[in-house]
Write a structure and sequence with these properties.
Blueprint (H helix, E strand, L loop, with lengths): L13 E8 L6 E11 L3 E9 L6 E7 L6 E7 L8 E4 L4 E4 L4 E3 L8 E4 H14 L7 H15 L6 E7 L5 E2 L5 E4 L3
Antiparallel strand pairs: 1-2, 2-3, 3-4, 5-10, 5-12, 6-9, 6-11, 7-8, 7-10
Helix pairs in contact: 1-2
The protein binds zinc ion.
Zinc ion binds next to loops.
Length: 183
């Protein structure tokens, strides 16, 4: 497959027929490749295997840029801070020490754009699923109620930590502290 540098020169998708059979109908697949820029993500490569006969399609998006690993720390002080927009890269882990809660890196290859409140809702969803686990149900209930109260604006402050090995995550606030990882 021709993968020379000139493939990268523009954003017009390149298309090649491959010798890989379609998993659905056996016809040779086409490989479509292009590089483009997505807000927050910056440069990504989009690769698609495509069958022209049965329209089978398999697309992968790969990030090109990596940066220095970093940890973002944001002190959430009030209800408005909950609406702070953030970008979480696919490898970023989020934790809130005061709530003993964390979210491991997602499955989504493109990461996600959300808010602090959106992350709290995700934690809440995760805690709902844990309900029947052998962790003490009273503790889970208490922490769920606490998160609900925060989302409804009770003004409880907490620390929002985003640890990103890719270094691409960001939190749209002037009060974010960025810690570089020790090399
Ligand atoms: Zn096919």
């Amino acid at each position: 497959m021709p993968m020379t540098d000139d493939v990268y020169d523009d954003e017009i998708p390149k298309e090649f027929v491959t010798e890989t059979p379609c998993p659905s109908c056996g016809e040779f697949l086409y490989f479509i490749f292009y590089r483009t820029n997505i807000t927050y993500e910056e440069a990504v490569e989009i690769e698609t295997f495509f069958c022209k006969k049965c329209l089978y399609k398999n697309t992968q998006i790969r990030q090109i840029d990596r940066r220095e690993p970093k940890t973002l720390v944001f002190q959430v002080r009030n209800h408005d801070d909950l609406r702070t927009v953030l970008y979480r890269s696919p490898e970023a882990k989020i934790s809130i020490p005061e709530l003993e809660a964390d979210i491991e890196p997602g499955e989504i290859s493109t990461g996600e754009i959300t808010t602090v409140e959106g992350i709290l809702s995700q934690i809440l969803d995760k805690l709902q699923l844990l309900d029947d686990d052998d962790a003490s149900p009273d503790d889970l209930k208490a922490i769920r109620e606490r998160i609900k109260r925060i989302i409804h604006g009770n003004g409880e402050t907490f620390t929002f930590v985003m640890d990103d090995p890719m270094g691409k995550s960001r939190i749209n606030s002037g009060r974010v502290i960025t810690l570089k990882h020790e090399g």
